[in-house]
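Input.
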Amino acid sequence: MNDRIHAGVTALSVSFVGAVGLVRYAVTGGRRGEHRGPRAPRRIEVEVPGHHLIPALAGTGWPATAFRHCIGCQRTVPVVVHDGAHRCDYGHTTVHTAGVAP
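Output.
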């Protein structure tokens, strides 16, 4: 039996591969590649400046984040800077430019 072990292993391997192939064919019906579904369109991201989308922001621009000294907190904190003023995360607002009263 030892002199024919390679032939026996080869025969078993071929029969198992054939059985798997038959089962796959029976389940899929011979169709190939349909399990992936249709390809989704590729999305492209483009950065558009805010004043192109919202005309009211054309002169002032978007608010920016920064670290500034807050008078209410008495320390340097993260703030949102917009139109010469900044507002900290704790609600304190500091104005750096003088406004004109109507």
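The first helix runs from residue 5 to 28.
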